[in-house]
Amino acid sequence: MATRKQIEANRRNAQLSTGPRTAAGKAVSRFNALKTGIDARLQIIPGEEPEALDALKAEYRERFKPANTEQSLLVDVLVRYDWQLRRLRVSEAQLWKLGIRNDWTPGQEIPFGKAFYRVPLTFRRLQRTVESASREYLRHLEELKRMQSESAAA
After folding, report:
1. Please, which residues have CB within 8 angstroms of residue 140's CB and are 6 or more apart in sequence?
2. Is residue 8 part of a domain?
3. What total number of domains does the chain contain?
4. pTM
5. pLDDT tens digits for 74-118?
6. Residue 29 included in any domain
7. Residues near 137 by Cβ (< 8 Å), separated by ≥ 6?
């Protein structure tokens, strides 16, 4: 339990911390909690094209034509996982490039092995994330297909 003195100090300190005030500061701070992008309020991160995500959403909506709120939610989930998997493929390519760049010489036979050897945990973590996202994508896809076949049968 906090003492009265600690509570008062907390209140004074809270008055000093009012968050970003400029447009630039607010633009930067909106990404503070971004980890993987899956639960982010914003699905676009710097370097990605919002139009590409919009096109992907339209493609999924056209393909699955959700008939109700639940199906629409599942389509949104599929889009998020698809987007994450695309992002992870880019991340993997960047990791390889980063790992090879520092000590690759033309004619070297094992640049990928060296890169993997230096950062195996990073590649394993990435692979686990890809596998998890792939499983979740397939699980939600099956659920959507099940719901749509039930709707068609009714």
Report:
1. 74, 77, 78, 81
2. no
3. 1
4. 0.66
5. 999 999 999 999 999 999 988 888 877 766 667 766 667 777 767
6. no
7. 78, 81, 82, 85
